[in-house]
Design a protein that fits this description.
The chain is an all-alpha fold. The protein has helices at 16-39, 50-67, 71-87, 95-102, 115-143, 145-158, 163-176, 181-193, 204-210, 218-225, 233-245, 255-266. The protein has three domains: 17-89, no CATH class; 110-225, no CATH class; 233-270, no CATH class. The protein is flat and about 110 Å long.
């Protein structure tokens, strides 16, 4: 046995104080693990949660900082708070995240801490809706140009029987009135703001589906911005499943068969 040598454990056991520190570190990292799981969801809208999760993580760190006694835990919290502030600097002014958060009926204005960013987001939404309305008016005007000419010709032939004298001025005044895109956008956004906040566990897209006729412009904007964050989780999950498929008992599987099995597994819910 002496010739073979004695194996020693290179890792020394942790002391009681160190176990307490590890427990605190696990508690500190728990909110970040929960946020990572939520953002990695493949069947839920996640981009609208980014601003809210950033604020929630900062708040959780501040609460934990007040109740953490160990220096290691305090140092870790300082690093986490500093990195959250640095990495997500001006996140509320990024319109891709801001519009998505504001048009999420679970959050709306509650996602924002910066009033200036909130005002800028609402102005951006109004501007986009106004452009949508202007494009619709332009298309309608061009489509009805030929119809107007036909109507004018018909009106000239019907002026002999008195119809043009009776309704002509009224029809002309209505034709000269154009819808105000700015008013349409403001009214639609105000009506959306007056809606109640929906529960956080509900699906925002189901809510927008039920309100598609009420908010014809906002629903298009919400569908455009509501998406899932791109992460490497799906790829890593496929790699893990492939590792479980290719083991010692299945070491002779051909690459083509592995590909077919993985394809069927990933699309089994669609079959």
């Amino acid at each position: 046995m002496a010739a073979m040598g004695v194996l020693h454990n290179p890792v020394e056991p942790l002391a009681a104080e160190e176990w307490t520190t590890v427990e605190q570190l696990c508690k500190i990292l728990q909110p970040f693990e929960q946020a990572s799981v939520e953002l990695s969801a493949e069947e839920k809208v996640t981009v609208s949660k980014v601003i809210v999760l950033k604020h929630n993580l900062q708040g959780a760190c501040m609460k934990l900082k007040a109740g953490t006694a160990s220096k290691v835990g305090q140092d870790l919290l300082d690093i986490l708070i500093a990195n959250l502030s640095r990495r997500f600097l001006n996140i509320e002014r990024n319109m891709a995240f801001a519009v998505a958060a504001y048009l999420d009926p679970r959050f709306k204005r509650n996602a924002f801490r910066d009033e200036t960013a909130l005002t800028a987001t609402k102005e951006e939404i109004v501007a986009v809706v106004r452009r949508m309305e202007q494009q619709a008016v332009t298309q309608t005007s061009s489509a009805s140009a030929s119809a107007t000419a036909t109507t004018a010709a018909a009106a000239s032939t019907s002026s002999d029987n008195g119809h043009d004298l009776l309704w002509g001025d009224f029809d002309s005044s209505l034709a000269s009135i154009q819808p105000n895109p700015t008013s349409t956008a403001i009214v639609e956004l105000r009506r959306y703001n007056e809606e109640d906040i929906v529960p956080r566990q509900s699906c925002p897209m189901e809510w927008w589906k039920s309100r598609a006729l009420v908010y014809p412009h906002l629903v298009k904007l919400a569908v455009k911005h509501a998406c899932m964050m791109a992460t490497s989780v799906p790829c890593e999950r496929v790699f893990s499943q492939s590792g479980q498929l290719l083991n010692e008992r299945r070491s002779r599987l051909k690459a083509k068969n592995v590909q077919m099995v993985m394809f069927l597994h990933q699309n089994s819910k669609l079959l």
